[in-house]
Amino acid sequence: MTVKKLEWIEAPTKKEKPDPNELIFGRMFTDHMFTMHYTEENGWHQPQVRPYEKISLDPASMIFHYGQSVFEGLKAYRSADNEILLFRPEENMKRMNRSNERMSIPSFNEEEMLEYIKQLIEIEKDWVPGEPGTSLYIRPFIIGTEPNLGVHPSHSYQLFVILSPVGSYYPEGINPVKIKVEKEYTRAAQGGTGMAKTGGNYSAGYNAQEKASNSGHAQVLWLDAVEKKYVEEVGSMNIFFKINGEVITPSLSGSILEGVTRKSIIELLQSWGVPVTERKITIDEVIESHREGKLEEAFGAGTAAVVSPIGAFTIDEAQYQVQDGETGELTKALYDTLTGIQTGTVKDHFNWVTEV
Amino acid sequence: MTVKKLEWIEAPTKKEKPDPNELIFGRMFTDHMFTMHYTEENGWHQPQVRPYEKISLDPASMIFHYGQSVFEGLKAYRSADNEILLFRPEENMKRMNRSNERMSIPSFNEEEMLEYIKQLIEIEKDWVPGEPGTSLYIRPFIIGTEPNLGVHPSHSYQLFVILSPVGSYYPEGINPVKIKVEKEYTRAAQGGTGMAKTGGNYSAGYNAQEKASNSGHAQVLWLDAVEKKYVEEVGSMNIFFKINGEVITPSLSGSILEGVTRKSIIELLQSWGVPVTERKITIDEVIESHREGKLEEAFGAGTAAVVSPIGAFTIDEAQYQVQDGETGELTKALYDTLTGIQTGTVKDHFNWVTEV
């Protein structure tokens, strides 16, 4: 399809680019952002690139009161050949529309939206860092803007895309983390919003996350809200276990986010001939497999860290170490292959990568 | 306690007051609002009344991404003697701090905060309508404002109080509504955020609310997220059943909002010698009592409608009528007494009302 060139307003002054070795996730933003508006009369309209600056909203705007919002997260990488690459961005566009549906937000044209994001990145191309492990993080989000305290979907919305150069998630190499199995708080229930990337899912986890941090854990491992026995996610990542040669990840239950990295790992493992299964898995099964010496590897998967090895998990007072706290061989291979494909150093047999 | 007079900036122009017969809930706001800021260095500081106007936020502000927010809702009434009355406002302040705790937002001094709200209302006193059924709706809310895409509690917040003159919830008298028992979507689970007044709880219900509206229902009746059999809330109100002379309301389970109207109804019924019980109640028990002719009344309770009679409820395809679709005697007595106390026409034996 052809999408017309975006109207854009150039920022009058440009920021100094940060030192690529000192990038902190999500703290610095580029010179421009993309915005688009929705009204019932005009649908999604007025797509525009304009200077990154504060936005002005009525204090009665629905986002401040009833949390009607969705977001996405993806990355642009600079290849060795100086191309700018996106990893399966169409998956993020699809998921954003699925989140929209759950949150009663009007959907957008996915192809058009992706084209707008590419045009924004083209304008900001000098902001895509090239050092190993760095990338330009892309954050599209939509908020309900109608000034109205009635409890019902907003009649107007704004969509934004902001960009943030981010450093390596593992400045000193990929490092196994310790996680805590959460038994009090829950993240999402069947029929809730767990499958949507909406704000409320994330702040709902802060209490548990703080409790985990205070006891020296990097992340929370969430169990299902009903029986508190099925493994769901780790922090804001999907989770994988390698048990007796087979890789197992919780099936999409409606309360689990359908991760793009998750999907890619499953496809990659299948292409490698490694047995991989999506099914319900209880925390008791994980412990049992550990006791029998069959829990070979465990890792989280998500856009930010790509693959995050789990070195140990704590349940109540008991701690279980995985792979002697070292990164497993398969975990490492997945990380290397995925980041290799993303940055163009590993051949992309899957057609996952799109050039901007 | 003594709280110093607030610093305030007067609005340069004043809006015209609306026709009290044409007020729509939460659509018009007064000339001024209250604001206060939080930073780690200064705590809650800079309390101020200033003109109601748009607020300016960085697009990376956490409220837009991870939904860290809490709010409250209460009303100021004009009595026949021209006093301005608040109904149990200290309960709202306490609940807001309980919501803060769940959402990892720093708590505020409740007495001080109530005093600020009173000073704001004093400034806006001409906006409190006096016609029967009207009031000035008070909406305090807090949002995370740090510009940071990291998934963790914000390090800075803004607190606002905005005011909206609202009309009678029942312009043509108190009217029974039809509600739909929701079996697919869920509102909140144990360990989730159901007991907190946070944005995400409300937009999470839009899908179900729209489905209910489309089939001619005013509200959704929520069941528990685990077994989908215990009654939780109706729309954004607490629910009460009168069965065989006894009033029953779901006990506070952690997933149910602790309503100020709910609490007041329980205390009022106790003072009248009407048996009232807080306990788990299944939807099957409600149907069974209906079949046996023992379901005498049903109603929702919340700040907006005060008391909202339920005339019928639908489960799957079956519809059950309560009180021949009329407002029950006890429901009406509760509505009249509560609104009477709130507006000063019924003697306040409980000391619930505070003069501004």
From TrEMBL, chains A, B:
Entry keywords, A to Z: Amino-acid biosynthesis, Aminotransferase, Branched-chain amino acid biosynthesis, Pyridoxal phosphate, Transferase
PANTHER family: BRANCHED-CHAIN-AMINO-ACID AMINOTRANSFERASE, SUBGROUP IIII AMINOTRANSFERASE
EC number: 2.6.1.42
InterPro entries attached to this UniProt entry: Aminotrans_IV, Aminotrans_IV_CS, Aminotransferase-like, B_amino_transII, BCAT-like_C, BCAT-like_N, BCAT_family
This protein's record includes keyword Transcription regulation: no
UniProt cross-references to NCBIfam families, sorted A to Z: ilvE_II, PRK13357.1
Pathway: Amino-acid biosynthesis; L-valine biosynthesis; L-valine from pyruvate: step 4/4; Amino-acid biosynthesis; L-isoleucine biosynthesis; L-isoleucine from 2-oxobutanoate: step 4/4; Amino-acid biosynthesis; L-leucine biosynthesis; L-leucine from 3-methyl-2-oxobutanoate: step 4/4
Enzyme class: transferase
GO BP annotations listed: isoleucine biosynthetic process; L-leucine biosynthetic process; L-valine biosynthetic process
Family membership noted in the UniProt record: Belongs to the class-IV pyridoxal-phosphate-dependent aminotransferase family.
Gene Ontology molecular functions: L-isoleucine-2-oxoglutarate transaminase activity; L-leucine-2-oxoglutarate transaminase activity; L-valine-2-oxoglutarate transaminase activity
Catalytic activity as recorded in UniProt: L-valine + 2-oxoglutarate = 3-methyl-2-oxobutanoate + L-glutamate; L-isoleucine + 2-oxoglutarate = (S)-3-methyl-2-oxopentanoate + L-glutamate; L-leucine + 2-oxoglutarate = 4-methyl-2-oxopentanoate + L-glutamate
Cofactor: pyridoxal 5'-phosphate
UniProt-recorded name of the protein: Branched-chain-amino-acid aminotransferase
Gene3D superfamilies referenced in this protein's UniProt entry, alphabetically: 3.30.470.10, D-amino Acid Aminotransferase, subunit A, domain 2
Amino-acid biosynthesis found in the keyword field: yes
N6-(pyridoxal phosphate)lysine carried by residues: 197
